[in-house]
Amino acid sequence: MSVLDGILAGVREDLEERKRATPLAELRSRAADAAPALDPLPGFRAPGVSVIAEVKRKSPSKGALADIPDPASLAAQYAAGGAAAISVLTESRRFGGSLADLDAVRARVDVPVLRKDFIVDPYQLWEARAHGADLALLMVVSLDDAQLADLMALCKELGLTPLVEAHTADEVRRAVAAGAELLGINARDLTTLDVDRKVFAELAPAIPEGTVKVAESGVTGPKDVAEYRGWGADVVLVGEALVRSGDPSTAVRDFIEAAGA
Ligand SMILES: O=P(O)(O)OC[C@@H](O)[C@@H](O)c1c[nH]c2ccccc12
């Protein structure tokens, strides 16, 4: 069993428990009461690189990264540094996140918020919207074409912008075929956890003009952001380097400046 399979097994168990605790009808009514989702795409298309700054406590590859007792305050510092969006990991077993983190961040910042999780079921998109997310991650590797199409259609209905994540040429092709407007290349192979930033350089040319390109994972400092930018990234998604930085606001600003206009 790969690392990803192990994560997905836990995600499905936790999902069944939440489904028992909170019926879909209740999520639907909470989603209806939520403020409409923000559209992140104009911001991501603005000149210069955009940063999606992530609230990430731990990971299967690195273990504990940072305690983050106050995710809302971390997110506020990211926003003050100029982050175009905030990513909140909500997977609990391996990443130490929760929907409570999403609630806290949503309540504090005005920039778009991404629910970062292993989304395999429509219920999770209703949850995302009920908890105020504007974007949701859809990982091509863990979905077949029919599931991807269904989840993309539900995102549209809910006003959520899907960040469609790929790691191979075939996954990029499937993401494009599904109509992704926001396409992420994860430099981390989730079956082995190996990170290779050059995967972005190799796959980006296959992404059609007009699609917003997101470089995910492996940014250790401003130089890496500049490199991704040189390879055509419109957006970089950064977790570890920011949660460990000690000064998240300055770190975000440095990343944006490193990439130039
Ligand atoms: O901490 P890093 O290397 O900056 O990576 C951030 C982000 O790309 C990573 O958390 C991520 C990308 N895709 C994912 C899918 C699931 C869980 C986590 C991820």
UniProtKB/TrEMBL annotation:
A Pfam entry, by short name: IGPS
Record carries keyword Lyase: yes
Superkingdom: Bacteria
EC number assigned by the record: 4.1.1.48
Reactions listed under catalytic activity: 1-(2-carboxyphenylamino)-1-deoxy-D-ribulose 5-phosphate + H(+) = (1S,2R)-1-C-(indol-3-yl)glycerol 3-phosphate + CO2 + H2O
Gene Ontology molecular function, alphabetical: indole-3-glycerol-phosphate synthase activity; phosphoribosylanthranilate isomerase activity
Keyword Cell inner membrane in annotation: no
Single GO biological process annotation from the record: L-tryptophan biosynthetic process
Pathway recorded for this protein: Amino-acid biosynthesis; L-tryptophan biosynthesis; L-tryptophan from chorismate: step 4/5
Residue stretches in coiled coil: none
Top class in the EC scheme: lyase
Domain named Indole-3-glycerol phosphate synthase: residues: 4-254
Xref: SUPFAM superfamilies: Ribulose-phoshate binding barrel
Keyword vocabulary terms for this entry: Amino-acid biosynthesis, Aromatic amino acid biosynthesis, Decarboxylase, Lyase, Tryptophan biosynthesis
Classification via HAMAP family: IGPS_B
Family in the record: Belongs to the TrpC family.
Protein name: Indole-3-glycerol phosphate synthase
Organism of origin: Streptomyces cyaneochromogenes
